[in-house]
Amino acid sequence: MAALSCHFQPTYFINYKKVMKTKPFICCSSSTQGNNVKVIINGAAKEIGRAAVIAVTKARGMELAGAVDSNFVGQDIGQVCDMEEPLEIPIINDLTMVLGSLSQSKATGVVIDFTDPSTVYDNVKQATAFGMNSVVYVPRIKQETVMALSMLCEKASTGCLVAPTLSIGSILLQQAAISASFHYNNVEIVESTPNPLDFPTQNAVQIADNLSNLGQLYNRDDISSDIPARGQVIGEDGVRVHSLVLPGLPSSTAVYFSRPGEVYTLKHDITDVQCLMPGLILAIRKVVRLKNLVYGLEKFL
After folding, report:
1. What is the number of alpha carbons within 13 Å of residue 121 lying toward its C-beta?
2. Are 236 and 212 in contact (CB under 8 A)?
3. Residue 263 half-sphere exposure toward CB, CA atoms < 13 A
4. How many CB atoms within 10 Å of residue 271?
């Protein structure tokens, strides 16, 4: 946040023979560096939003400029996040109002969108209208929405990063899986989560998509099997996904590659939303330089 420093400064008038001193006036100046990236978090009261608030306030070169959510309206976002001191930033349920107040400062701004697939297009459109770039982390966002956002950003020469995952570990798993796919003809993905979700998850779908169209045809022995217990085939190259809901387990993604006499396993566990924050900070730093839409944080690793 901007720290405001104030001091008293006397005023002098010179009248040839004597100096007349008037009453002092107060001079104030902001100590915030002008090149800080101003960050608005839309969905700030969610678990990931609260983690993002703390991460942004601790990161160099950026500062929290607004918190938008339909919950805890009017409450200080610092207190909602259980921070030691309030941030003096109230939660507001009006993105346009926050964008309007920030646009007057002419500072570089980024809107982080943690909202919903049905509202993300309008949110990015509003941010673009105020000259602000966006980072979108919204599970189950539709491909048609991504295409529409791409056209919007290209026309406006505004940056937008749509991230299916903010986990750097998950991205590294995906990259390792692509490398392994050229050496194995059998691959299956097993994911688990403690809570019921829409399955397969966006993360599993992205891994399956990455492994498709590489000139490989997987699981040839039963590629046409439609037995439900064999999992869902994603894409046209035979990649199968199995989804588990087991309370007590962390959110986990495992990719199994095999051939006769050998099994190669890649596995990634998420135990806390904090693991997404390094990826989020990286996304904020990169999106300010963009003039179009980029899909996937892996483009910057």
Report:
1. 14
2. yes
3. 6
4. 9
Alpha-carbon distance of 98 to 60, in angstroms, equals 22
Name the residue with higher pLDDT: 254 or 24. 254
- Going across the sheet that includes 293-295, the strands are 91-92, 62-68, 37-42, 109-113, 133-136, 160-162, 293-295
Tokens of 26: 């107060």
Tell me the two tokens of residue 145. Answer: 């929405």
First vs last Cα of the chain: how many Å apart? 29
Who has greater pLDDT, 250 or 88?
Answer: 88
Cis upstream peptide for 250 (omega within 30°): no
Cβ atoms of 129 and 98 within 8 Å: the answer is no
User: Counting every residue, how long is the chain?
Assistant: 301
With CA atoms as reference, report the closest residue to 168 among 11, 286, 280, 23: 280
Gap between the Cα atoms of 145 and 113, Å rounded = 14
Q: Tell me how far apart the alpha carbons of residues 139 and 141 are, in angstroms, rounded to a whole number.
A: 6
The pLDDT, as a whole number, for residue 50 is: 98
> What is the C-alpha separation between 21 and 11, in angstroms, rounded?
6
pLDDT of res. 104 = 80
Which two structure tokens, joined as six digits, stand for 239? 């990649």
Q: What is the pTM of this model?
A: 0.83
